[in-house]
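Supplementary Methods, section 5.1.

A reviewer requested that the exact input to the structure prediction be made available. We therefore reproduce it here, unchanged from the version used in the analyses.
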Amino acid sequence: MAERAATVTVKKALAGASRGLREAHSASPRLDAEILLAEALGCTREQLYGESERELNAAERERFEGLVARRAKREPVAYITGRRMFRTIELQVNENTLIPRPETETLVEVALEFLAALGKEQPRVLDIGTGSGAIALAIATEHPSARVVATEVHPAPLEMARQNAVRLGLQDRVTFVVSDIYDDLPGGARFDLIVSNPPYVTPQALRRMAIDVRGYEPWVALLGGERGLDFYERIILGAPVFLEPRGMLAVEIPETKVVEVISLFVEVDRFDGIDVRNDLSGRPRVVFGRERP
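The structure derived from this sequence is encoded token-by-token as follows.
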């Protein structure tokens, strides 16, 4: 008689996967295991907690083991599941888009505070380099009167952002444009708010980044030139032409570029109230300023 395969419960599957992912140098092995098991079983992480003794069938075990094997090779969990939460919205992501980070929510917070204080009936917002659409779609979701233009230089990530907008029912308030920074915007376009999380990684820094990032996420969305400032220079120096009087420009930054980015705002000599907002970890994350009337 053939020997019966050992029983694997949710509890055992999570324990085994967590050990394996820890050995593979995952930064969050238990969390990764829970997300991947929930994906394999078609349930939520919360449901796993109440079903720790549930037995996995052969198909479920095979699917889970396949997902864990991908993560053990350091493929990001978001690419494995094809999804990522950002503030209140769930976004589809793939290898053409950066994975939205929690720290980028700081940029959205700055934007929403400005729009609330502005009090305009239908404020116009420009999101440069939208990627999966995280910033543009979060602003449109949380400030329903906003009209947002989201740009990307490459069509593939822009299509993903467009699909996310359709899924969220925002396609009527968010317009997607293939544009290299400001180059291909309609003539005379003006905005109350311009936001961007531009590429700012230097080639040297990219080589030091975790394989999860440099091995999987698109380099074109990461690399910002030899000094990491190429996109900041174009965005900040070109902003006054596209901002309404008293409009605001806000950009996400790495903490190592605070002085340089502030200097660019000052160099334009068109911004008042230049300031820095820290993220939840206390690191400088956003530089912003309002154009003089």
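Residues 10-73 form one domain. These observations are discussed further in the main text.
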